[in-house]
Amino acid sequence: MSILKIRKPDDFHLHLRQGDEMGQYARETAASFARALIMPNTLPPVIDPPGLFSYKAAIEREAPGLEALMAFKLLPNMNPLIVTEMKKAGALIGKLYPAGATTNAEDGISSYEQIRDLLSAMEEAGMVLSIHGEHPEAPVLEREISYLGELEKIIRDFPRLKIVLEHLSCRESISFIEEMPDHIAGTVTTHHLLYTLDDLMGGALKPHLFCKPVVKKEEDRAALAQAVCSGHPKLFYGSDSAPHPKNKKEFSSCSAGAFSATVALPLLAELFEREGALEQLESFTSRIGAEFYGLPLNTSSITLKKESWKVPSLIGGSVPLCAGEMMTWKVMK
Amino acid sequence: MSILKIRKPDDFHLHLRQGDEMGQYARETAASFARALIMPNTLPPVIDPPGLFSYKAAIEREAPGLEALMAFKLLPNMNPLIVTEMKKAGALIGKLYPAGATTNAEDGISSYEQIRDLLSAMEEAGMVLSIHGEHPEAPVLEREISYLGELEKIIRDFPRLKIVLEHLSCRESISFIEEMPDHIAGTVTTHHLLYTLDDLMGGALKPHLFCKPVVKKEEDRAALAQAVCSGHPKLFYGSDSAPHPKNKKEFSSCSAGAFSATVALPLLAELFEREGALEQLESFTSRIGAEFYGLPLNTSSITLKKESWKVPSLIGGSVPLCAGEMMTWKVMK
């Protein structure tokens, strides 16, 4: 197959940052996605309606054609009344970052016990809880598995709360999601579908593949690929594309985040094709997530063509995933 | 204790590189060590007497007071006659790099079957075989364990060959060394005694802690520390200090190697003190290795003092381990 036309995808996990480069990052996503769920761990974080409105407006002004779905960040002492306010303002999720788990998460949540009232209000309001599921005190490769116990308690204590476990990185998380009720789902990134610790540090160390959760073993990657390529009904796409300026990545203390927006669809098409599952790509990128969130499916479409192109070495000051490499699929304008 | 006087140490695994910066790297080692075993994976590699003589002379000219113990690199098609030549030239070891295992090892050994005659000649000549024990095809965290099977065959086929397994990084290697005869020993680096994957990538990614073999889990680190602090008779110090220019480390494709020479003794003193084992430090750094190699013990001594100092941010164009951090022990001049 040399032409692939699918319903326009959504990216249900995206970092766009702030400042001068945000516009370019947003346009990179707009080239492939109709909607993107914008993560709120900015500085300052998105925690109130004015912050949400202004960030959404700035994004959509910079990237016409991209609908910014908005999120707010859960903080330990937040008033539960914020939930209805944020819902009215259009927030799709409240995002739980365990304290210290990733970029700008120092002010996150140590235990769900800290935010029982908030979670209860979210359950009442039908607001989705989105979780960076890593236990920051655990050894780095076991943080996601270590978080599943906490997640199980949240599910038990808030049985009607819709939850998305973000950026699954290991086999155990897939099994966990499968065992849970239908209102518990997961997102999967491009890089966790394609890379392992061997890519990150088996040869030279590759800072542009460094993200949280870190990529894991081949059996984890293969299990994720197998799950999404077989049309898993509870896993959908969230890129976790997370640009950092080149000098914050190629640095003695390298920030976590893989900037994948530009190459996301070409890489996914290549993977699904290799797995003989191109017919499943559209569900993963354009249907399952929208249905989970109760959003209408996008009506526009996007066309990918088998045409080789070279990934730029720098986009908006950040080094994209696969910088300088050749892609076999290309998103047509 | 605020003053620590020990027999001057030896570093039985050191990379000094070539070119302009080599002198400064050598002097960093000379400040703490009487002798250092210089690794031969230079470009071109040390593979003959003239190469050995000129490298040794260059090092000792640049760093008076440091005795350079020399090595040569084993290549797949090497004539076994080289062994007696290199022995006569003063080489202490022949170094086996599995092909592709680390920096400048593309021309290494795929299987010991390739160099049976060479190993046989080494066994006859009493030349020590030094091994970078990683199986490069295995997943990055399992490469050392995966190599132990190959090592076992070498030991079986060459029962009198003295062997050093370099830079042990995991528990299983300690047990392996313990089960083998006394002429099979291991070296341990500073960084594998102090750091884990959590230091490397638990927070930000730290390229200056990236080395091969990569640092492992806390249980591995703790087992190594426990072994050397209890005076393990078959484990001795080899820093594997391996400077790379800052721009090759803080880079999209970061070279493997931790430049530890400058902070080696202060860090070791701090570790052994913390473990209540300061009295074992001298054996680890200044006796066990020399005895294994049949070298006289150094007669000079070195004094460390409890005095805080700040590690420079750059030495000879390379970023040292613990750059910018405070040390509690200082090597006195």
UniProtKB/TrEMBL annotation, chains A, B:
Required co-factors: Zn(2+)
Pfam families found in the cross-reference section: Amidohydro_1
Domain of life: Bacteria
PROSITE patterns: DIHYDROOROTASE_1, DIHYDROOROTASE_2
EC number per UniProt: 3.5.2.3
Listed GO biological process terms: 'de novo' pyrimidine nucleobase biosynthetic process; 'de novo' UMP biosynthetic process
Coiled coil stretches, renumbered: none
Positions with a binding annotation for substrate: H15, L16, R17, N41, H132, H244, A256
PTM sites of type N6-carboxylysine: K95
Active site residues of this protein: D240
Domain Amidohydrolase-related: 11-310
Binding site for Zn(2+) 1: H13, H15, K95, D240
GO cellular-component term (any): cytoplasm
Family annotation (InterPro entries): Amidohydro-rel (IPR006680), DHOdimr (IPR004721), Dihydroorotase_CS (IPR002195), Metal_Hydrolase (IPR032466)
Cofactor descriptive note: Binds 2 Zn(2+) ions per subunit.
Enzyme superclass (EC): hydrolase
Keywords from the UniProt entry: Hydrolase, Metal-binding, Pyrimidine biosynthesis, Zinc
Reactions catalysed, as given in the entry: (S)-dihydroorotate + H2O = N-carbamoyl-L-aspartate + H(+)
Pathways per UniProt: Pyrimidine metabolism; UMP biosynthesis via de novo pathway; (S)-dihydroorotate from bicarbonate: step 3/3
Gene Ontology molecular functions: dihydroorotase activity; zinc ion binding
Binding site for Zn(2+) 2: K95, H132, H167
Subunit structure comment from the entry: Homodimer.
Family: Belongs to the metallo-dependent hydrolases superfamily. DHOase family. Class II DHOase subfamily.
Function: Catalyzes the reversible cyclization of carbamoyl aspartate to dihydroorotate.
Protein name stated in the entry: Dihydroorotase
Gene: pyrC
